[in-house]
Amino acid sequence: MNYFQLFNLPAQFDLDLTELGSRYLKLQKQFHPDQHSSGSERDKLLAVQQTANINDAYHSLKQPLLRAEHLLALRGLKISNEQRSFTDPMFLMQQMELREQLSEVAQSDDPDAMIDSIERELQQQKKQLLKQLASALDAQTAEQDQLAADLIRKLKFFFKLQQELELIEQQLQD
Amino acid sequence: MALLQIAEPGQSAAPHQHKLAAGIDLGTTNSLVATVRSGEAKTLVNRQGRDMVPSVVRYTADGVVVGDAALAAAVDDAQNTIVSVKRLMGKGYSETTALKQQVPYQLVDQQGLVAINTAQGVKNPVEVSAEILATLANTASETLGGELNGVVITVPAYFDDAQRQATKDAAKLAGLNVLRLLNEPTAAALAYGLDSGQEGVIAVYDLGGGTFDISILRLRRGVFEVLATGGDSALGGDDFDHAIVAYLQQQTGQANLSHQQMRQYLTTARQLKEQLTEQDSVDFTLPLSDGVYNGSLRRAELEQLISPLVKQTIRACRQVLRDAGLSADDIVKVVMVGGSTRVPLVRQQVAAFFATEPLTSIDPDKVVAIGAAIQANVLVGNKAEGDTLLLDVIPLSLGLETMGGLVEKIIPRNTVIPVARAQEFTTFKDGQTAMALHVVQGERELVDDCRSLARFELRGIPPMPAGGAHIRVTFQVDADGLLSVTAQEKSTGVQANIQVKPSYGLTDDQVATMLKGSMQYARQDMQLRLLREQQVEAERVLEAVSQALKADAALLSEGELDSIQQALAALQQVKQGDDTAAIKAAIEHTNQLTDDFAARRMDQSIRRALKGHNVDEV
């Protein structure tokens, strides 16, 4: 299913999220099962399926990584659920360093300052990778698509780190 | 058939027809029914002039009584008088060990599920709840002068799939058409109209007779999202009463109370609590073994007595905010629910904690039922405005058991519902034709720490070498938060049979059997009801298809149009008769004929919905 088509939006990485949101609500208003709760059984079932699709599409387009994955999938490059080991020694090294820093937060003299500094680092890296991802996807060539797939894999590491950092922050607050 | 009745915003599909709908607050201690009349949502009173019906069901040798009459016997016939049945909904027998000590009736094991031994035999919580629902629905039909077209029933936000399913089964057993299960805090927020215009985080503080719930909702662009829920299932207004009783005992020097004295003390305690919401000091009289005791209680003294209990609720509020990752000043509105929130100390403490004056203008006992009534009125189609859109989220994650007793999350909590997620599985043995899946609900990593929902057995997988069969299992959660599962083998397209064994629920067959065995439906009634159900469904189908043809006949070829019209005429005719099976067959025939038409209309309506948005403008 082409999620961009569903929302009648251009199939590109750079997306107007406000517009996406308002189109999402417009579709929801029409298809949500609540609008069909006095309809026939099949109406209701169809409404559930249709809304589930709309929800799924919105969920996937809203988030940059899922949106990029969907865009690649539409171009015939499927990378979700792939099991692939990653071999970029420089990148892996950098990840290990960041992980080490994360594990030291709890013991640090000033955990808050350390969290802030890791957060800044993560944000900066993410921003840079997302920018590269946008231009790779815009190029629409097989070669650049491969590069985009690689960038998505890298970004996944950063999003994961971000989650872990938030978890650590929460644990410290408790 | 699958023709969605697509109504343009601002107009309903079938105008000029006012339908009867009610909202039901099925509470632990009390239940209420409400409806919208002349644009105003109000609770309905029964023949005794009461709108609050105690959630109590008494089974005697000659029948069943519900409400006040049942409550009156709660002491004398405790074994057959079921109170707080809500606590048993969707629970397994083994899960209720703690409750066994607390309830005066006898809990028994009904094939793993909890049930109650009564003078009328073993009754399960679904049957008991059905009695309460039927009583409330009866009040509504009598008041409104007709059978209800549909109801909205409220459930606690934290209710899992099994508890929601049990509630829906109870409604089915009571012969009710459930438009939607609605979360209680969402209903309360709706009653205050917070769905229109309000953006931000809302807290719903619900202090009932025996339970305390605190829910944090986020309202954003018409989406109600439950961020976190918490509370204490063993803390409520009854504890206030007991604290006052203990104080009164101290004053009168009566250490041991008989049953009758206890009731007297409790009545006095409740009166004191209620009067002290208005007055600063109240006098009371209690009988002693020789003479009477005259005393008085000041509000300050009362507050001292209940203060530890109120503090306990505030602690739970702090905890739930932490769970939501928020602080008290993120809350823009606080909604008060439950009779005990009338106590001034409760209001003060809540206002102080959230630093905002809580909303109390709607009777806290009725606010949930009123919200449910408002939503029921919209859902049944009486209110045409397309503005209300209530998007709910799934309260607890759904997952599958994987190797080593670990949980793999399939649908994380707070995902907007309805939602469908597919997962692929493959066989690991040559010629394997069956596969077992275990679905759990909860946030923890280990299966044992989550709640078991159901075990599914996939059968009829075509025999292939190991790893050859790819089975795509789709988990679908509907707008009520209820799960259904379908499975298909990908290469052959063979639909695998699924046998659902709910861990703590009834199978469809069991519900059907209960329906047949139910006292309310003697054999003939049952057949009449099945016939009526098919007739209603036939009417819906006829209505939907006619509307669709009126709007979009252009999407059909002449031949298609012709055969659909023939099917409609046939359905119309067979509907008048009393052959249930024939009506069903005619509906199915119409459905098949119009499947394609429905898909075309769906595509067209999606395009239309977004018409006016030019791609180039984005």
In words, what does this structure look like?
The complex is a heterodimer of chains A (174) and B (618). Helix content of chain A is 74%, strand content 0%. Chain A has 174 residues and is an all-alpha fold. In chain A, helix 5 packs parallel to helix 7. Chain A starts with a helix and ends with a helix. The model of chain A has no long low-confidence stretch (mean pLDDT 86). Chain B has 618 residues and is an alpha+beta fold. Helices cover 36% and strands 27% of the residues of chain B. In chain B, strands 1, 2, 3, 4, 11 and 12 form a 6-stranded mixed β-sheet that branches. In chain B, helix 5 (184-191) crosses helix 10 (367-379) and helix 13 (558-576) crosses helix 14 (580-609). Chain B is globular. Classes of the chains: A mainly alpha (174), B alpha+beta (618). The interface between A and B is large, with 43 and 51 residues.
Helix content of chain A: over 70%
Q: What fraction of residues of chain A sit in β-strands?
A: under 5%
Pair with the most extensive interface? A-B, 43 and 51 residues
Element-by-element helix/strand order of chain A = HHHHHHH
| Secondary structure: number of strands of chain A | 0
Number of strands of chain B: 28
Low-confidence stretches of chain A: none
Stretches of chain B where pLDDT falls below 50 for ≥5 residues? 1-15, 614-618
Q: In angstroms, what is the radius of gyration of chain B?
A: 27 Å
Largest sheet of chain A: none
Structural class of chain B: alpha+beta
Overall 3D shape of chain A: globular
Radius of gyration of CA atoms of chain A, rounded to a whole number: 20 Å
Distance between the termini of chain B: 36 Å
Main beta sheet of chain B: 6 strands, mixed
Which structural class do the helices and strands of chain A define? mainly alpha
